[in-house]
Sequence to fold (387 residues):
Amino acid sequence: MNTPIKIPIKSSVILWLVLLSLVFTQSACMDDYKVIEDMNDTSFELLNQDSIKVRFPEDFRGQYVVLGFVYTNCPDICPLITQNLIKIQKDLGYPDNVQFLGISFDPKRDTPDVLHRYKEVFKVNENVNFLTGEPIIVQNFMDSVRVRTQESMRKITESGKEIYFLNHSDKIMVMNTKGEIIIEYGGSMPSIPSLIVQDLQSLIQ
Amino acid sequence: MNNQTFFISSASVRTKIHLLFMLCISIILTLIVGCNNKVDYSKSVFEKQDTLADLSMAGKEWNIHVDGAWARPTKAGMMSAAYFKLQNYGYVPDSLIRVSSDASKDVQIHLSYINDGIMMMEEQQFVSIQPNEQISFAPGGYHIMIIQPTIDMNEGDSISFLLYFNSGMIIEEDIHVGNPEL
Fold:
């Protein structure tokens, strides 16, 4: 004779509540980190500030990557994006499994040598790299992450220097260990580092 | 005769009374005019005091201060920006129209702003500041662009700037190189 297991009503309600909360938590986590862009479709051959070839995203597989988009001739906004990358790294406690990339959308001017000097100015450690490359490759890369740029002004200054400025998207993105972009924020805002640190901490744990 | 005398004497008395009356009137008028003059005089002294007060305030009519100035460290030939707060404590509006520096021949006033998700930047011919107003030159907004400085701007250095105003006033400011946000 099979005797049915009797569960008291109170316990069954608690059990259901626990199950439901687990389901909601799981779905909430999945919704938070939808894939924005799968970077595995294409491989981009870029150069870092030391003229070392970097294949994106292959070289970063298995690691989280925080990407900021900058150009070194930008005196105001891009330094904010760069310093946000630095703040995120610092607030995370300089983790080994998170890489930080500042990718230039001005490859003609931002040669590896220029990026090397830019890196020196910000005194960042080896887990922060700045990337450039062939203009056409960089353009394709920027298209794939929907970073828009447009020359806003070009002129010869009183002292004879040619200067130009770019209007540009303001973004910091997070790529997961599988090469998928899962987080995208405004890059220069002061509140961004704490949000990304929170997200990364929940992802890394 | 007596009647005549009476008439003469009464006429003389009348004249005297008339003269006395005229004298009183002129004294009163003189007093009134004198008092009025006095009032006018004190008024003019008061006005004079006002004018003197204005003159003593002349130095304070234009009273713009620069506070919390800093410039981003960079290397020679790259880019930097300087930031500060302008506070107009004076009684007259003015405009910052030009900035120069010993770090670069090309220093411009710029404004960064966001439009449809795109960061933009525009050179400003002037930045107006009203009495009692504070204008922040801060990252992501107004900034002094230092184009390709001729020297390295290292943390702890001090760079000399001249801020030119439309009124003809010039502020000389030594700006500290360093990033308070890092």
About this structure: The first helix of chain B runs from residue 2 to 61. The interface with chain A takes residues 72-75, 78-81, 105-106, 110, 112, 114, 117-123, 139-140, 143, 145-148, 179, 181-182 of chain B (CB under 8 Å).
